Recover the amino acids of this structure.
């Protein structure tokens, strides 16, 4: 009982510490890694494989392939392009899952199990223990521009100017000329360009902030680059507002809002 | 009977109408994921789906507490199927019959999920077209599960009517061809009529301790069940039968190799006859370790029936393969069954292809061939074209 209490306090302590230290490689205790391994082999290995290569037996029968953890390359992060994800990013991915993939939300796993899993997953790639990878350049989504018809219209202009339509299509339906040629990710797996007018097809876009992060960080391992050096912060917020409005049916594909359309009639 | 038919028709109609507003099945709705998270192609489960099932219809590693009816989703799902079939039969080399059949739509309706902490349930109702019109509905299985008595689904208990955890569950197969050795029936007769029968393929009434131990190599699966052994019918002598199954997985390059044994020992006491019967079998299954797209499986089974001084023996098995050609789109399957009961021999071969128009809508074509040699020889060939729609 006492041991259990010490272990819980230790895990919770690490849990809090883990989420505040992104400036150095972590060094979790063996107990946490052992717990992570146990949960991983039971819950994650059927898809991601025992050794984290993303080639578990389920991977052959699903279209969106599970992440290969050994490369240390992750799409959804809050860090600059090429950086490793933060511990919060990994924890969030385990907790929320990814829409339109086989990865469910594991929010019903205990926080201790999710934390141990996060630490264990980092063990698959040497990048996480390489001091040269740190400190991570974390992007704070600040100075958000409120969603408005003006911002949506500006976002639409940027969408056209930056040629987002070449992949995502003029209407955002994922039917751009480049998309028709087909895309593969860095591991050679086929990927589909999501229909941005269908909320069921977008992996993670519940908030404008999440979309802003995609433009800012890029999706490492996929053809989606970071626009941090190409667009200003303000422009990325406008673009995020437009895409959010497109996904959630607030705006039409040409950037006009429903209210604007009504006023024209 | 007419009232029963009307009720069944009304139920089927209500279920059919509700399909328009709920277009994906129960767990896909609850967890907001595609069918392929748990199925290679419905109803066949993948490795994750097996663990989900073992964990009391909850995500592996989790113990849920919220009853499923508290969810804002309809806790029911159904699989509707329509079939067109062509069958040709021959007896001693002579053409006997040739038939084309368009079967009316049938449905499997099921409900499952969490009842409370450590408690879950599963129930399935089969609605089939009745002869002479209308529909007939029957509760196929209904059981309560006390899950995670030991964590990580190491030990669970289920009570009620359930299917025995066979190496290749009959209700989860891609093929419509029955497993001959699982369907082989042990029976007792009275007045020349079958009074009671048992087959591994049918659900049983009883209690089962089962689980999955991921910590033993790459997973040990087991079941120890006490059942009445009369295919969910009323027990005629209340003698519990014993079923034991154990199956060990070892992964080679993340591709599972599974091997196991099963044993069933039962007794049936009718008014005129007593049958002491058993089943013993072993099974093996492997995936190709490179692409994991080819799954080959094998089962060998023997049975002995002792009725008075008479002893009847059965032996046989099957070998099959599934090929996952295009993920979430195209799957091929084939199987060869063989069975020998006394001097009667039956061989069966099936070959099928399934195409998914959507995760929950698919079209299946299957060719089946069967030959039985007893006093004479009968042959049959059939081709089935089926549409399945799940919601």
């Amino acid at each position: 009982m006492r041991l259990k209490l010490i272990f819980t306090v230790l895990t919770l302590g690490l849990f809090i510490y883990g989420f505040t230290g992104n400036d150095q490689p972590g060094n979790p205790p063996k107990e946490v890694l052992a717990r992570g391994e146990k949960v991983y082999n039971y819950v994650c290995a059927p898809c991601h494989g025992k050794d984290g290569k993303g080639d578990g037996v389920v991977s052959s029968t699903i279209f969106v392939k599970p992440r290969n953890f050994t490369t240390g390359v992750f799409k959804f992060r809050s860090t600059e392009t090429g950086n490793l994800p933060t511990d919060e990013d990994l924890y969030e991915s385990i907790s929320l899952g990814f829409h339109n993939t086989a990865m469910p939300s594991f929010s019903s796993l205990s926080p201790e199990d999710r934390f141990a899993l996060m630490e264990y997953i980092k063990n698959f790639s040497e990048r996480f223990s390489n001091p040269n990878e740190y400190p991570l350049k974390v992007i704070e989504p600040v100075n958000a521009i409120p969603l408005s018809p003006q911002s949506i219209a500006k976002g639409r202009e940027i969408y056209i100017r930056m040629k987002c339509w070449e992949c995502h299509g003029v209407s955002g339906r994922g039917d751009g000329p480049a998309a028709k040629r087909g895309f593969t990710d860095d591991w050679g797996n086929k990927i589909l360009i999501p229909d941005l007018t269908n909320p069921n097809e977008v992996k993670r876009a519940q908030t404008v902030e999440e979309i802003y992060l995609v433009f800012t960080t890029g999706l490492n391992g996929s053809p989606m680059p970071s626009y941090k050096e190409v667009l200003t912060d303000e422009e990325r917020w406008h673009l995020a507002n437009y895409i959010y409005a497109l996904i959630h049916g607030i705006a039409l594909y040409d950037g006009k809002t429903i209210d604007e359309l009504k006023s024209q009639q | 009977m007419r009232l029963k038919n009307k009720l069944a028709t009304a139920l089927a109609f209500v279920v059919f109408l509700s399909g328009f507003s709920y277009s994906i099945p129960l767990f896909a709705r609850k967890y907001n994921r595609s069918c392929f998270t748990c199925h290679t192609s419905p109803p066949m489960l993948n490795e994750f789906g097996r663990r989900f099932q073992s964990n009391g219809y909850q995500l592996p590693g989790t113990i849920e507490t919220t009853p499923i009816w508290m969810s804002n989703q309809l806790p029911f799902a159904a699989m509707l199927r329509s079939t067109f079939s062509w069958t040709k039969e021959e007896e001693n080399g002579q053409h006997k019959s040739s038939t084309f059949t368009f079967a009316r739509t049938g449905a499997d309706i099921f409900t499952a999920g969490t009842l409370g902490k450590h408690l879950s349930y599963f129930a399935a109702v089969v609605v089939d077209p009745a002869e002479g019109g209308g529909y007939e509905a029957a509760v196929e299985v209904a059981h309560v599960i006390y899950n995670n008595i030991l964590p990580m689904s190491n030990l669970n208990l289920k009570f009620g009517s359930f299917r025995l955890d066979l190496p290749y569950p009959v209700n989860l197969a891609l093929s419509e061809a029955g497993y001959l050795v699982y369907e082989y029936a042990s029976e007792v007769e009275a007045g020349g009529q079958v009074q009671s029968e048992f087959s591994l393929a049918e659900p049983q009434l009883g209690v089962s301790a089962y689980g999955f131990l991921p910590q033993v190599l790459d997973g040990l699966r087991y079941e120890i069940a006490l059942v009445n052994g009369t295919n969910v019918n009323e027990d005629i002598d209340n003698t519990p039968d014993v079923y034991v199954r154990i199956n060990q997985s070892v992964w080679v390059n993340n591709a599972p190799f599974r091997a196991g044994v099963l044993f069933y020992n039962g007794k049936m006491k009718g008014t005129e006859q007593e049958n002491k019967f058993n089943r013993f079998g072993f099974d093996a299954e492997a995936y190709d370790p490179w692409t994991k797209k080819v799954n080959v499986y094998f089962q060998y089974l023997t049975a002995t029936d002792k009725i008075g001084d008479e002893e009847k023996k059965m032996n046989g098995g099957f070998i099959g393969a599934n090929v996952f050609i295009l993920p979430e789109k195209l799957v091929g399957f084939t199987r060869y069954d063989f069975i020998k009961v006394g001097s009667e021999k039956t061989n069966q071969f099936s070959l099928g292809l399934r195409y998914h128009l959507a995760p929950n809508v698919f079209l299946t074509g299957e060719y089946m061939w069967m030959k039985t040699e007893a006093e004479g020889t009968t042959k049959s060939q059939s081709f089935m074209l089926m549409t399945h729609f799940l919601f």
User: Anything to note?
Assistant: DSSP finds four helices and 20 strands in chain B.
